[in-house]
């Protein structure tokens, strides 16, 4: 039996392929984008820009979630090169730990080599290590509500699931069964959403019982909100589906985004293997994990990794780490996990580049040029005139800024331009005076 995932072919046999490059593995999205449709009336033919699930922010965070003792803190230590406690007992982590990790990108590396800047600032992913969840957490078992409130505060989930045997490490369910463990986590998140939605609907429905044709716009809006909450509640309860897998209109997404629902968050599944199984690419649970995810949450990503291996090599020098990976004929999974997490949050980045600094600026997908400029400074957004955009491949091919301009590849973009991932941008703006 063979299962293809993230550029690896996993098999019960040891002969498998290696990871593909990071750019290829990152070309996915776990958050559902509702594509544009034509609007009616006088604007017929105009394409309506569809909203994304989640907060419209550039400062988004991804949380590491799973049962106790599955390797969450070990993974966090490795990915952040941190020193968070990782011990063999449940709830070793209580208060969430937070750290930023640089997003690897060969384009950023090339720009730094090209310009040789005095300052180099890559894009960052904010990662939070959250305490372990147990069955019954939605009703208060284990750390219960505290855990779920921490999940509510993040924007995407890295779901770590244990797929290795080790008699010395306790498993809260008594044995190793990753599919069962994933079902436990999913059910607890769904139950917590159901509890919240039921209470919220009971409250809001009482406020709209008398809404009629002559009601105020505010009352009608409240009625529409109640209808959306009821629709979402039915989807989660009766269909047993995650909110993020539903088809929602823009007004419905606006309501959903205010609720911070747990099952609305994108999820990446991290299958934690032993070092030997990871290096040998041979683990009996990986195909079963992938099969469950494809059936229950189609489109979600599964990434095999080894927490013990990643933690071991994270403490090595760059030279020694490279030599170890070459000797074992393997790669670290962490760069791909970081990029995948960044993409799951619907984040992209553009570059400002020159001899003073090469910097990646994080924005959410579909961000217009003025708002992208505002990430640098609010004056750039308020006084926005235009954006001069160079595509990375054009600069790499033509070698110099002057050659790009001479070949007509320096694009002049206005307020309606949605900045694209990897753009090299120079903003022009009028400095605005604040009102006294």
TrEMBL record:
- What job does the chain carry out? Hydrolyzes ATP, and can also hydrolyze GTP with lower efficiency. Has lower affinity for GTP.
Q: Where in the cell is it found?
A: Cytoplasm
Q: What is this protein called?
A: Obg-like ATPase 1
What domain of life?
Answer: Eukaryota
- Span of domain TGS: 346-429
Q: Does the keyword Transcription regulation apply?
A: no
The chain positions of domain OBG-type G read: 60-325
Task: Say if the entry is tagged with keyword Membrane.
Answer: no
Detail which positions bind ATP: 69-74, 273
Which positions carry the signal peptide feature in this UniProt record?
A: none
């Amino acid at each position: 039996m063979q299962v293809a995932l993230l550029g690896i072919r996993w098999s019960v046999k040891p002969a498998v392929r290696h990871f593909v490059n990071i750019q290829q593995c990152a070309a996915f999205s776990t958050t559902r984008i509702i594509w544009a449709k034509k609007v009616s009336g006088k604007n017929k033919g105009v394409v309506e820009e569809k909203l994304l699930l989640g907060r419209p922010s550039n400062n988004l965070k991804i949380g590491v979630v799973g049962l106790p003792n599955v390797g969450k803190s070990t993974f966090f230590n490795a990915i952040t090169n941190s020193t968070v406690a990782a011990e063999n007992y449940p709830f070793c982590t209580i208060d969430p730990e937070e750290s930023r990790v640089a997003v690897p990108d060969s384009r950023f590396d090339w720009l730094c080599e090209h310009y040789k800047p005095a300052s180099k600032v890559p894009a960052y992913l904010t990662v939070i290590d959250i305490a372990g969840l147990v069955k019954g957490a939605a009703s208060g078992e284990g750390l219960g509500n505290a855990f779920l409130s921490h999940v509510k505060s993040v924007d995407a989930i890295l779901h770590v699931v244990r797929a290795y045997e080790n008699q010395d490490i306790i498993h809260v369910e008594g044995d190793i069964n990753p599919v069962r463990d994933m079902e436990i986590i999913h059910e607890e998140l769904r139950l917590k959403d159901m509890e919240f939605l039921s209470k919220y609907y009971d409250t809001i429905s009482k406020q709209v019982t008398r809404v009629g044709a002559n009601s105020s716009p505010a009352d009608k809006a409240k009625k529409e909100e109640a209808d959306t909450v009821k629709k979402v509640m039915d989807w989660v309860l009766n269909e047993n589906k995650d909110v993020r897998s539903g088809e929602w209109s823009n007004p419905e997404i606006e309501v959903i985004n205010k609720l911070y629902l747990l099952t609305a968050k994108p999820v990446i599944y991290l299958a934690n293997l032993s070092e030997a199984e990871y290096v040998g690419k041979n683990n009996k649970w990986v195909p079963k994990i992938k099969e469950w995810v494809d059936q229950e949450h189609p489109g979600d990503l599964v990434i095999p990794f080894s927490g013990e291996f990643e933690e071991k090599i994270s403490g090595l020098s760059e030279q020694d780490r490279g030599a170890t990976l070459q000797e074992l004929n393997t790669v670290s999974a962490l760069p791909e996990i970081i990029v995948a997490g960044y993409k799951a949050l619907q984040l992209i980045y553009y570059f400002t580049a020159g001899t003073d600094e090469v910097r990646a600026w994080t924005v959410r997908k579909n961000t217009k040029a003025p708002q992208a400029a505002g990430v640098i400074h609010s004056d750039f957004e308020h006084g926005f005139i235009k954006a001069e955009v160079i595509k990375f491949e054009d600069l790499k091919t033509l070698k110099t800024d002057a050659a790009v301009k001479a070949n007509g590849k320096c694009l002049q973009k206005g307020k309606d331009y949605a900045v694209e991932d990897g753009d090299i941008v120079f903003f022009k703006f009028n400095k605005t005076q604040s009102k006294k």
